[in-house]
Amino acid sequence: MLITLDESHRQLVHQARDEAGAWLATKGTDQYRGGLDLTQVHTNIDRDFDAHEFVGWQVDGQVVAMLAISTPDTDFWTPAERVELQTYISRFYVTEHGRGHGAALLGAVEERAHQAGNHWLRLNCWTTNTRLHDYYRAHGYKHVRTCDVPTRPSGALFEKDLLGS
């Protein structure tokens, strides 16, 4: 079930990010590794939590996947792209992998975005995590381009056409 996260879920988002880092370390990717300042990471999460809506997928009373509905990242998306009708997602974390919870959350957010009249569901993800790229492709996303911003390890841009054109 799709729910809106509130202040009582803030710490869960932080915990999910930390657990994602540990899980990713076992998957042979450099995502969330390599000198990231975790204090800054959590400050950024708090900034996003205060500024944007976070939603979650709840199963048996537990939030098992979450993401932020935010604004297109100006480091990656062009001014023309940023004004298009879209839902932009970030900070996508899953606490129970391999159970379809992430896909269920993406589907619910996609449906909500479509009902709101948005043309696109967009995101950027870690540039070197090709398994994550494959995950998004398997869920109907198209790779738009990869941006090289020296201070940003993410920059692989994906979008899903919600109008099917």
Folded structure, characterized:
By secondary structure, the chain is of the alpha+beta class. The protein has one domain (2-161): Aminopeptidase, CATH 3.40.630.30. The chain has 5 helices and 7 strands, in the order βααββαβαβαββ. The protein has helices at residues 10-25, 38-51, 79-82, 101-115, 130-138, and strands at residues 2-4, 53-59, 62-70, 86-94, 120-126, 142-146, 154-161. Strand 2 (53-59) and strand 3 (62-70) form a beta hairpin. It is globular.
Furnish the topology, listing elements before pairings:
Layout: E1 2-4, H1 10-25, H2 38-51, E2 53-59, E3 62-70, H3 79-82, E4 86-94, H4 101-115, E5 120-126, H5 130-138, E6 142-146, E7 154-161
Parallel strand pairs: 4-5
Antiparallel strand pairs: 1-2, 2-3, 3-4, 5-7, 6-7
Would you state the CATH class?
Alpha Beta
- Strand residues, percent: 25-35%
Order of helices and strands: EHHEEHEHEHEE
Low-confidence stretches: none
Strand order of the largest sheet: 1-2-3-4-5-7-6
CATH fold type: Aminopeptidase
Counted beta strands: 7
Class derived from helix and strand content: alpha+beta
| CATH homologous superfamily designation | Gcn5-related N-acetyltransferase (GNAT)
